[in-house]
Amino acid sequence: MKKIYTLLLLISTLSFISPQALHAVERRGNPIMRVLVLDNRDSISLAVKGSYKIYSMPSEKLLTGGYILHTKVGISKQGIMFGSRELKFSKIRITVPRGGLIYLDGRSFRGTIDIIKKDNTKLSVINRIALEEYLYGVLYNEVSHRWPIEALKAQAITARTFALYQARQNKLQDYDLTNDIYSQVYSGATSERWSTTRAVKLTLGKVLTYKGDIFPTYYHATCGGKTEDATNLWNIDIQPLKGSECGFCKESPHYEWARNIPLSDIEKKLCDSGYKIGKIKSVAVMARNKSGRVDKIEIRDDSDVSCMLTGKDFRNMMGPNDLRSTNFEPSINNGKLTMSGIGWGHGVGMCQWGAKGMAGKGKNVEEILKIYYPGSEITTIDKIANKL
Ligand SMILES: [Zn+2]
Fold first, then answer.
1. pLDDT by residue (tens digit) across 313-331?
2. From the CA of 220, how far away is ligand 1's center (Å)?
3. Please, are residues 376 and 369 in contact by the beta-carbon 8 Å criterion?
4. pLDDT tens figures, 83-126
5. Is the CB of residue 137 less than 8 Å from the CB of residue 102?
6. Does residue 89 contact residue 42 with C-beta atoms inside 8 Å?
7. Rounded to whole angstroms, what are the CA distances from 6 to 12, 97, 188, 291?
8. How far is CA 21 from CA 51, 97, 166, 167, in A?
9. What is the 252 CA–ligand 1 centroid distance (Å)?
10. What is the rounded CA–CA span in Å between residue 123 and residue 119?
11. What is the secondary structure of 189-208 as a DSSP string?
């Protein structure tokens, strides 16, 4: 028994990823992503169900290690409290053997975990994880694992390309991606499913390029008929993001929606956003862009003072879940603003429900991506590695 234990310990020691190896590209084609998974925390519950090692960073000094861990991590004056032990460092790295999991507040993560004391008051946590494993933890959050495999493959390629693009943009920042809707929703190994992992594996290393380089492969839940030209939202003017006809997302539960918001709530939101406006009298769409989405909206009060917002700013102010898209018609009824709209999301790039609709009609991943990113090509990471 002792022999087996020693052997197991030796194997697990051998397969530990060295902290140095986690600095940059783990191996060609599967770079490490740095994902912010927890932020502004006073304490974190941390657990490992196998062997682990803890290093100080950036000095990479081995501080401690062992087998089975369940502790609270907090803040001390001079560093980080690790259970009852004070580690006098502001950044520590927890590593486990390849394939092992680290639990943070009950959610499991592959790769390694950096706990950082920020501005001396709060903790943030960055999960360093190989791109392909990161994608295992993204897909289930973005689409249903019950969708047809060709739609899941399209999601895997767009999510892979999007992550690589973000990593290149954020090279000099502390992390590449957040784990929320502002990057891609990621919740670690907890959200892995057989079919979504299969879609990642079937598209291993595949990315979308335009003119030989990756681009931000935006996607959204439901376009409602036409996807949006990215120039209406951001400073990106390339053929694959100029918008296209969809017509495949009618079955989406988000195709049509309506919201009623009390005018007093909107008055407060306007005031909080710096607009000087009294009791709202009218809300009118002044301009729509080519896809039918609101470009300019005018809000007027009972003293005839008005303010003009872009559709994008209005949606941000209202909250992207309340105002599901900028493709809506406003009307005032009984002290409330009724917004009747179609689609969910910014509308740029792939319409996820449209991809599902296409896959359901027998279209393959190439055909799906051609519709939503016209002019783009599917290639592999190794072909563009020198640009990352
Ligand atoms: Zn659509």
1. 999 999 988 899 999 999 9
2. 9
3. yes
4. 999 999 999 999 999 889 999 998 999 999 999 998 778 999 99
5. no
6. no
7. 10, 16, 31, 65
8. 19, 13, 21, 18
9. 9
10. 9
11. GGG--HHHHHHHHHTTTEEE
Read off the amino acid at residue 230.
A
The C-alpha atoms of residue 94 and residue 112 are separated, in whole angstroms, by 6
Contacts of 317 (CB under 8 A, 6+ apart): 269, 270, 273, 309
- Which tokens is 258 given? 């309506």
- Read off the tokens for 314: 């209005």
- Centre of ligand 1 from the C-alpha of residue 358, in Å: 10
Neighbours of 340 (CB within 10 A): 14
Residue in the structure block whose two tokens are 């996807």: 227
Residue from 170, 198, 54 nearest 115 by CA: 54
Residue 326 identity:
T
- Give every strand in the sheet of 328-333, ordered side by side: 256-262, 336-342, 328-333
Residue 9's identity, in one-letter code, is L
CA–centroid distance, residue 34 to ligand 1 (Å): 31
Written as six digits, the tokens of 154 are 């399209």
Q: What's the pLDDT tens digit per position in 334-359?
A: 999 999 999 999 999 999 999 999 99
* 8-state DSSP, 335: T
Q: Cα(338) to centroid of ligand 1, in Å?
A: 23
**Whether the Cβ atoms of residue 332 and residue 280 lie closer than 8 Å to each other:** yes
Average pLDDT, the chain: 91
